Structure formats: structure tokens, C-alpha cells
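Sanity check record (used in CI):
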Amino acid sequence: MENKLLEVIELQKVYGKKESPTNALDGISFDVLPGEFLGIMGPSGSGKTTLLNCIATIIKPTAGQVLLSGENISAFNSKDLAQYRGSRIGYLFQDFELLDNLTGKENIILPISIHGINSQEADKRLNELSEYFEITNVLQKFPSQMSGGQKQRVAAARCLIANPDIILADEPTGALDTRSARTLMEKLKGMNQKDERTVLMVTHDANAASFCSRILFIQDGIIFHELRRQTNDESQDEFYDRILQVMAQLGGGSANVL
Ligand SMILES: Nc1ncnc2c1ncn2[C@@H]1O[C@H](COP(=O)(O)OP(=O)(O)OP(=O)(O)O)[C@@H](O)[C@H]1O
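Expected output for ABC transporter ATP-binding protein:
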């Protein structure tokens, strides 16, 4: 049996008061295998961000478990939790979340400056990631002096600097134009293929989703459909067409509904 990197087990999140609860996650369960590029799609309000935030320990689930390499993250003590947040997961946000008063370089190394990784190793990783994401020319610039695409590639380098086990990405192309979105997705996919880097990505965008190896469609906090790319004999364009078909069926005929 293949090892599971991440296991989401019967995860529930109820917001609000007893009289008017919102079941944002309704007992969702799935696994992520090492090296997978897993997409999560679903209509607005279906629980996608809640799911990522429970995995990232930004919010606490009402019930259920998340295991990383077999370890229950809700049982972590504060030291384990800091290590989990700082270096075992990398979070890529839709709106970049760079600090305005730090340069590109300072933003990228922030996670390891906090967690104390030796500076030679840090410089080596910074150089490799900057070249890979084509951001060497913006390392000395502030976010206000960068394009959206550059900001998101700086954010991607920051999320990889501590060499996390898994990247959690919430609508990473949501604030980008089509070309910058494509570049970002090609870079993430490249990382996934070259280093077997595991990615769990929430997206509304069928183009972005077509880079995934598998997609879970969620609605009302549970999985209602799954698509898997037939890697050997299905092109990305063919997979994109299948994603659009599911979106059209499930979204009432419009590919933009999800
Ligand atoms: N802090 C909160 N308090 C109360 N209800 C919330 C809170 N956050 C989210 N919800 C509700 O939980 C449900 C799931 O929200 P969530 O943000 O996870 O959905 P989503 O699929 O990410 O949506 P979108 O695609 O629009 O970002 C929604 O009905 C939402 O209104």
C-alpha cells in the first residue's frame, strides 16, 4: 500500500450558533499521496478555504482529524505546531501576503530567519529558488515595485524556502492575469515533477486545475466528484475539457459558476 502524506479524516467544521449553524465541512475524508498535485474545486461557499485553513491550523475543526505522515496535527504541542507551520507546510495565498516594508529577498527568507536555519544553506536555497522562479531582478525591490506575477513568484519562493513537505495553495492564480497565471502554474508543476513536491491547491480556474494530477470537487463540505488525469495517454488540453464538462454539469451549464 502506498504511503499517505496527508490524511483528512471525517473533518467537520461548524460555524455560528447552535440555532443557525453553518456546516462548512461535513465529515470530508480524503488522502494526498507524496508527489501528488491535488486540486480542490467547488462552488463559492462549499468549504474550500475552511478545509485548507483547518489543514494549516489557522482554524480548529469541530471534529475529525488531519494526519501528516501519520501524525495527528491536533495532538501537536506548541513546539511541534510551530515547526509544522514554519517548515512542514508552505501556504500560498491568493493575495500574496507579502510584507510591504520588506524587500523580495527579506520576504522570502523571513520563514527561515524566524526558524533559524544556517545562513549558507539559506543563501543556497534562496539563489536556487530565485533563479527557478525568475525573480533574481526583484530581490532588492519592495512589493509595491513588483508586478502581480512577480509578487506571487516571490510568495512561492517564500513558501518553499524551508523545504516543506506540502504546499497548500488557496486560489494562487486568482489575482493574476492569464499569462502570469500560466507561468506560475508551470513553475509549480515543474517543482512537483522535478522534486516530487506535493501540492494541494484550491482553485476556481479550470486552466490552473488542468495542471493537477487529480481533482476533488466539493459541495456543501463533502466530496461529490473526483477526476483523475490519465497521465500516460491524456493531454493537459483533454483533461481541461473534462474539467469544463464537470463544471458545466455541476454548475448548471456555466463554466464560471464554480
Ligand atoms: N468565520 C466564519 N463564520 C461563519 N461562517 C463562515 C465563516 N467562514 C466561512 N463561513 C461559511 O462557511 C461556508 C464555507 O466557507 P468557505 O470560505 O470555506 O468557502 P469557499 O468554498 O472557500 O468559498 P469561496 O470560493 O467563495 O472562497 C460558507 O457558507 C461561509 O459563509
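Strands lie at 6-15, 22-32, 37-41, 63-68, 71-72, 89-92, 166-170, 198-202, 214-219, 222-228. If this sentence no longer matches the regenerated C-alpha cells, the check is flagged for review.
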